[in-house]
Records
---
Amino acid sequence: MTVADILETPFLAGTAPPPAKAPSFFKQLRLANGNQYEMLPMAVYEQPIFQPKGLFGRMLWVNDPDGVRRVLLDNVANYPKTDMEKRFFTAMFGEGLLSSDGQTWKTHRKVMAPSFDPRSVASYAPAMAETTLAFREHWDALANNPEVDIAEEMKLLTLQIICKTMFSSDADDLIELTGKTLGFTQTALNFNLLDILPIIGPRRLKAKEDAIHADFAKMDAAIYRMIAEREKNLADAPKDLLTRLIAAKDPDNGAGMNATEVRDEVITIFMAGHETTAVTMTWVWYLLSQQPAEETRLHAELDAVLGGRTPTAEDVPNLPYTRMVLEEAMRIYPPAPGVSTRVALKDDEICGVKVRKGTQIAIAPWVLHRHRTLWDSPEVFDPERFNVQRSVGRPRFAYLPFGGGPRVCIGAVLAMTEATLILAVLAQRYQPRLKDGETVALQTRITLRPKDGMKMRLEKRAAA
Ligand code: HEM
């Protein structure tokens, strides 16, 4: 590399300046295997509303917090998810929260909400911490400074955690089955521009749908078996997420969910709740390895508050810098870089721009979190942005890792608690370092992940 190359190489992966102009359709197809958001032109990051010249109907990128608020909250009834997204989510999750709409969604959300409130989440925390401790022992048992793919490691850990949180001790059989099914489904869900072409598009979509159905059959059978077992003796069942979902009742009329509805929600929670947390943690390790000063501050907080012991749910509010590290990591690398595309049912107006019925609305945390009008030096990892003083006055809809409005992530508290506990357990002993010569590129597959994994050396901290 020449000196000029080195100077032009961005410090952190995915932080190169956006192109002045979007690449051609064919170039976009060629680059579709990476992170599509990196192809967006600079104007998206500068304008409140961006209207690309599209080949396939009218679309608006809404990048202004008031505009986002209008779509996700103030006029939410006018902006349901698009039929294409609903169709695919339904192929996997049936009528689960991600895919359902209207009264079904409303009832399920109400019935499920208590299982995700802070009190319930606190009751899952011991299983999360214990699973992470066991996982750290698996790291301890590896040879000195072993090299691992940290993206795969985090996927395995979060899968183990969601399985334990959901199924307690019955989880072991399901871990492998679920991991395979979800991995496959993510690949099948790799949408690109070919999927919206006439003739080819519908055929590709149908083939993906069929593949998803076939792949879910085994996992479904295992989940139905487990629901039936639990229903036989609910009173003595462990108080995990599965028991709570089976027992949950609508506070207004006492109605609960049947086995199919519980199955749909179980799959939804798996799919929505494990890879997202895994990629969050992967990017956290990457960022800390690149910025030792921030890592040292994190270690100092963990050492001062925990002194080497296992963290609990009660410790979480006492770890503000840990929280800031997680929040800033999700700003630069939002685990869900785009929330589901919405479509306007009726004419509307967003930030003074007329929206015609049928217009597709793209809202992307990736764009919002790097928007030039909302953040200083958005390409810099600076956890202190999220301290109390600097957060004052930031619009709620400028920062959207968990979405917003009534369809905000139901698992947000659970995810933050889980990520804090994982970071607190593992960073007390380890400071992973990127393998020499490892280059990191981004890829979007619903979640934002490192394209070819991320090889890291598991260095033990000197103090540990
Ligand atoms: C860091 C981790 C996570 C991130 C970044 C994340 C992000 C999101 C986002 C952006 C949405 C809104 C999508 C939209 O409006 O189109 C969402 C919805 C959802 N998330 Fe999460 N999520 C995370 C973890 C979890 C966990 C741990 C669970 C469950 C255990 C979960 C369950 C769900 C469900 C069920 C929905 C649909 C909610 C609804 O439509 O009512 N998520 N998530």
---
Amino acid sequence: MKKTFFLLTSIASLFFHCKTEPKTAPKPKLDVVVANIDSSVQPADDFFAFANGGWLKRNPIPASESNWGIGSIVQEDILEKVKKISKNAAAAQNPQGSNAQKIGDFWTTGMDSMGIQKAGLTPLKPELDKINAVKNIQDILNIVAQWHTANIETLFNVGVYQDLKNSDQYALYLSQGGLGLPDRDYYFGAKNDSIRAQYEKHIALILKLAGDSATLAPQHAASILKLETRLAKESRRLEALRDPQKNYNKLTIKGLQALTPTMVWSDLFKKMNLSADTVIVGQPEFFKAVETVLKNTPLEDWKNYLRWQLLMQLSDRLPNAFEEADFNFFDKVLSGKKAMKPRWKRVLAAQEKVLGDALGQLFVKNCFNDTAKQRYLTMTDNVMAAFAERIKSSEWMSAATKTKALQKLSKVVKKVGYPDKWKDFSTMTIDKSSYVGNTLNAGKWWYQYEISKLGKPVDRTEWDMTPQTYNAYYNPSNNEIVLPAAIFLIPGYQDTEIDDAVAYGYGGASTIGHEITHGFDDEGRQFDEKGNLKSWWTAIDEAQFKSKAQNLVHQFNDYVAVDTIHVRGEACLGENIADLGGVVLGFEAFKKTEQFHKNETIVGYTPEQRYFMGYALGWMTQARPEKLKMQIMTDVHAPAFLRVNGPFSNVLEFYNAFKVQPNHKMYRQGKDRVVIW
Ligand SMILES: [Zn+2]
């Protein structure tokens, strides 16, 4: 193992430089925020366009992408590095079972397009044979159960997470699933007619590629769409899925059995390697619907549904024709992409899901040093201190609830940069035999990794995101914020080149403040300091909070995201509370820095102004209209421009910094400005 480690670190030291070294004499660097400005726009009319418009005009969305921005540039840089690592690992002699062997073999099978082409559907033959041999509905359910153990989630979803009401224990969760389209709403309404028609055609094409006749394929596709529509009908909408109480229904196995008499859960759980006395069912009505659909749908339709689900979920590991068809519907029709990404990027995206932690160990070595880690740890402390002050001086919250809120805040766990302990992939089987085989083996490993937690003590040190991910999260069960290293990177600049004003906007507000506020948004506030779903609010404070939150719902409902489609304020509420909190807390924390007190301008902008520009930099991204439409259907985040202009319109310090007057487009009357935290 030591040798592997040496090999990996030596590769890493060769290729993991976070910033490209200039080959010729460096040009004087442009200022990190001023460089992106569109000076034809008034900051008080559309701050997002002012701060980012110049860059966005110079950097149109590439054909292979549905959106493009600062996060894409960070990820592109990382991809180039991971490509070199993967290529080197594939060319080297690695000890069997080492991370390098797995990275190398996964890459080799993924890049072998000739081999994939030649193999056709052979790697899936055992699964397709099983479907052909189905004699009754129990056979269908057995296949569903067995596929779950390879992470092919069909008919419903299964998972093991901390019990929302007892964070010291893991629990088994069952939830709605089984659809091919990205959300249940696509199955209904005239506005989605065209997408549904194209989806049906796409299913038929895939089935034809898999051997169905030209006559049967469209008939099968129609029956599959009908089946999925019945499941969709009893699936909850995005807004409804955000209520933790209503999506928590703890049942005994007997209680679960009563919902779905046809599904013998004791038997299915055995096939899924699960052993549990209770299960938390997210949406009981969905499982009731599954029961009805199981009883009333011809067996042939089920067999076709299973074939479709298998081929759809693995299409990007199959021959070209499957992958292209999949691209043409899911990427082109749904998200507006014009061309497929090169193969190596598609393989690396798959590899990230399978072996992300192994790559992360290499990534952080040269990209996030101790100085940077310390800077963001201190910044986190400052943001938390600012939050404590805001709670104490809150005008609407009672002393009793304030005490509880401060207690919860003081218990927030900070995970910054990368985990102390990496996942151990030694028991995962990855070899040179086939891309599909590696995918299924990795799926089995990941399924086993997750479900083996049942009954064990909760591991609160775990990370659910790799350090090379341009993202962050708050986990209510651990009352923790998790901030991967990549989210603090600004392409083209070393961390030491970023002034505090920009860093507090970019990292302190849009990431740290945002994530901490999630612990106190409409969902997070329902969890206590130990991570349990348990109210700590007085009735009056709760009512006050809800009324303030409702104002934010109204504010965002009024915004148009694309064409005539409005933002869904209720679905985005948690994110919008977090954005607003992030802007306020980041600014309060920034006020403690030397730069704020010195108040010197840089390239013509005051520290306050640079703070808001730094925040906007975090959202410097643009999306195709198709992608925006999909976002409204499937995502709880508002479009990027509204994540800047929306919260800023409520913040007095922004009005002061950019002299916002009643005649400006971002102006909201004092009484309409939402203040929560
Ligand atoms: Zn968020």
